[in-house]
Design a protein that fits this description.
Largest sheet: 7 strands, parallel
Number of strands: 7
CATH topology: Rossmann fold
CATH class: Alpha Beta
Strand content: 15-25%
CATH architecture: 3-Layer(aba) Sandwich
Helix content: 40-55%
């Protein structure tokens, strides 16, 4: 194993790839030698990300909860080679309200994007990986919300905990085929949205920082490169696990 962290000649699908952790992961995978299929709603944003990459890429424009989109992503991957990896990054949290005030519509929307879409992409990608016969990797984007009862986010928290359960189940089912399945659980990461929140609300920024053991929030790159590790041969004996990238937030709770 001369270069265990490299992804040369490997094709990875990344959902929610137009910004934030998804775009950062696309850049990291590409710099590690991989080819990427970028999936998101905004074609303009995807084109901008693709133009910044050193390696091959394809773009699939569509909502991840649209059942037509996962097969399109797998077909786009096949244009570049055998599918090796899937990063289920797309997620939303549009509802911020106590449990009793979280509507059925909020639940349905969050479940559709955060959980059912991830399952749909897995259903599309896993058979392609098995057919290629080379093994593979699935990385599901969980959150510290799967471990902590973050108030006013009941539906979001529930989907992330369920995603971790799905990770363990897929790891057991597909381990014999050489396909490793893990989750990564970030804490507060300075995506464009979070940075804007902190810039406009210094008190919130201080709250985020004070909750971490290392006294700062994380960067997109500090999440993206651990995902590359989970996609690589270096993580060959790791499956069914949840990797926390939270600056010690849960340790300090």
């Amino acid at each position: 194993m001369d270069a265990p962290f490299r992804l040369d000649d490997r094709v990875v699908i990344i959902t929610g790839a137009s910004r934030g952790i998804g775009a950062g992961t696309a850049r990291a995978v590409s710099h590690a030698g991989g080819s990427v299929v970028l999936v998101a709603r905004s074609g303009d944003d995807l084109a901008e990300v693709a133009a910044s990459l050193p390696g091959q890429s394809r773009i699939v424009v569509g909502a991840v909860e649209d059942p037509a989109v996962p097969p399109q992503a797998v077909a786009a991957a096949a244009e570049m080679g055998d599918l090796w990896g899937l990063v289920n990054n797309a997620g939303i949290s549009p509802a911020y309200a106590p449990t009793a005030e979280t509507s059925d519509d909020d639940w349905q929307q969050i479940l559709a994007v955060n959980l059912r879409a991830s399952a749909a992409f897995a259903r599309a990608a896993l058979p392609a990986m098995v057919a290629a016969g080379k093994g593979g990797r699935v990385v599901n984007l969980s959150s510290i919300a799967a471990f902590a009862g973050l108030p006013n986010l009941v539906a979001y928290n529930a989907t992330k905990a369920a995603l971790d359960a799905m990770t363990r189940t897929m790891a057991v089912e597909y381990g014999p085929a050489g396909i490793n399945v893990n989750s990564i659980a970030p804490g507060t990461i300075t995506t464009e949205m979070v940075q804007q929140m902190m810039d406009t609300n210094p008190a919130l920024a201080e709250k985020f920082v004070s909750k971490t053991a290392i006294g700062r929030v994380g960067t997109v790159d500090e999440t993206a490169w651990p995902i590359v590790f989970l996609l690589s041969d270096a993580a060959g004996f790791m499956t069914g696990q949840v990797m926390l990238i939270d600056g010690g937030r849960l340790a300090a709770a």
